[in-house]
TrEMBL record:
Protein name: 2-polyprenyl-6-methoxyphenol hydroxylase-like FAD-dependent oxidoreductase
Domain FAD-binding, first and last residues per copy: 3-72
Family matches, as PANTHER family: BINDING MONOOXYGENASE, PUTATIVE (JCVI)-RELATED, TRK SYSTEM POTASSIUM UPTAKE PROTEIN
Xref: InterPro entries: FAD-bd, FAD/NAD-bd_sf, RIFMO-like
Pfam families: FAD_binding_3
């Protein structure tokens, strides 16, 4: 049996952020995600500037940028965003 003070259910942005912050504050936790891997379907095209500031503070900004789409528009020419 695993004994942890916090159980985080769901490894989406909310759960992953909570898990990361709990770790930063030295609070043990266990994150349970029902899926075995990351989703194959995109769930965000962009992040708010404040979100990127948080990612930078947490030391994961570069990894988030590398995992994202190119900064240039990816929709077809003439299409509206
Ligand atoms: C097509 C699309 C485009 C989007 N574009 C943007 C964007 O550009 N910018 C933006 O900010 N947001 C965007 N969003 C919204 C953003 O993806 C959501 O706001 C965000 O994912 C919500 O995060 P969350 O952690 O609350 O939930 P989720 O991302 O839904 O994560 C919940 C997780 O919990 C897991 N789970 C659920 N039930 C259980 C269970 N019983 N046991 C274990 N695990 C469980 C799920 O598998 C999932 O991984 C977009 C969403 C979609 C679908």
């Amino acid at each position: 049996m695993i004994d942890v003070p916090v159980l985080v259910v769901g490894g989406g942005p909310a759960g992953m952020s909570l898990s990361l912050l709990l770790d930063r504050f030295g609070i043990p936790s266990l994150l349970a995600e029902r899926r075995a891997s990351t989703t194959t379907h995109p769930k965000a095209r962009g992040c708010h500037a404040r979100t990127m500031e948080q990612f930078r503070v947490w030391g994961i900004e570069d990894r988030v940028r590398r995992a994202g789409l190119p900064q240039e528009p990816t929709w077809p020419a003439g299409a509206r965003a």
